[in-house]
Amino acid sequence: MKVKIRLYGELALKFSPEFEVEIEENLTVGDLLKKLKISDQEYHILVNEKKVKKDYKLKENDHIKLLPVVYGG
Fold first, then answer.
1. Which residues contact 20 (CB under 8 A, 6 or more apart)?
2. How many Å apart are CA 52 and CA 45, to the nearest integer?
3. What's the CA angle centered on 63, arms 60 and 67, to 5 degrees?
4. How far, in Å, CA of 72 to CA of 69, rounded?
5. What is the pLDDT of residues 6-45, one digit of tens each?
6. Are 45 and 29 in contact, with CB atoms under 8 Å apart?
7. Per-residue burial over 23-51, b = 16 or more CB atoms within 10 Å of its CB, e = otherwise
8. 54 and which of 7, 12, 30, 34 could share a cystine (Cβ 3.0–4.6 Å)?
9. Of 54, 26, 58, nearest in space to 40 by CA
């Protein structure tokens, strides 16, 4: 099954701003991030425009966005 991933900031420069990836069924967002070697602590995870936790099970044609957490003051 395929999902689309949209990256922002440093990740967009490292990989590509948007790409599709083939995944196995019952894969969680956290599992996918591990495979891509992306920290789940440094990004807000949105699937289909809704914020999710890393245990969210992905479905066919899900659209994932990883937004960097911004610190500062």
1. 2, 3, 4, 5
2. 6
3. 145
4. 10
5. 999 888 998 899 999 999 999 999 999 999 999 888 899 9
6. yes
7. beeebbbebbbeeeebeeeebebbbeeee
8. 30
9. 54
